[in-house]
Amino acid sequence: MAVTIRTIAEAAGVSRGTVDRVINNRGGVKPELERKIRRLIAELGYRPNRAGKVLAALKKPITIGCLLPGVGNPFFDGIIRGFRQAERELSDFGVSLEISLIKGFDVREHVDALRALARKNVSAICAATVDVPEVREAVNGIIRSGIPVATVNSDLSGTGRLFYVGCNYPESGRTAAGILNLIRRDEMELLIVTGSVHMQGHNQRIQAFTQELADRSVRFHVAKVIETGDDEEIAYRCALKALRDFPGVNGVYVTSGGVSGVCRAVCEKNLAGKLTVLCFDDIPSTRRLIRDGVISATICQEPSQQGYRSVKMLFEDIVNAHPPEKRLYYTDTVIKIRQNL
Question: Which of 1, 78, 194, 235 could staple 261 via S-S, CB 3.0–4.6 A?
């Protein structure tokens, strides 16, 4: 006899709704009770009716809400291409996307945008957002309301998010340090440029970069850390001031957006080719600056794959009624220099 949700509920002494909340990771169940239900699911061999779920998906449109801080940052165009590719492939299942783009990393804007997506009765949310208490609270509230949330490009701590698809930021930070160590053997005076101190990925790139340099016994000093909000004009002004204030800087490490603005300041100070500039991502302006000899190398993270995988995995969760097996899906870390653009 097939094991059903009712079978699990009767064995656990709870309602079918409680079992359904556990199966669909909707929260609101005491941890010890959730562990009991999951143990019974494994022991009794419960399997969701995938065919039934697929048929239900065909009858009921699925809308996935996507939040990206993509205004003014062309990197996120790649993630959107991945989103749209998955949407096209899943269109026969009635899948559509509601994409919300905001500029920068203002906490209130991120919270408001997440809640606005939830109010649109989306089936799930895929978000690249800031890792701060207010956002974590909003995300957990959305999950408790029955809407699963996944993270793309930058992860969240302390939430019940389903999975993360994106860059392995510690690995990319260590890779940048390794490249710098190959290029330069002199003592390094570094300017670090980051998008936001509230983005988990940006912070991990900095921490892993400096730790790897220390582990390799590289002589270095961080002259200044600049926060730009991924805004090119802010990046230009802040970098120009820092290069004036710290004339000994011989290396610039840009962890996120604002690369063109930083390089504009480098060129204005006649430092192109004299100091080492390392950055991330393969966008047209960065490719041009590599060819011009301003940037030494960029480290890429397959943004289209991030968007594509996250939508596909969310769909699988909705259809199969259980979370994907891989809670972390890292895209490849790819080094690009002038010779392999």
Answer: 235
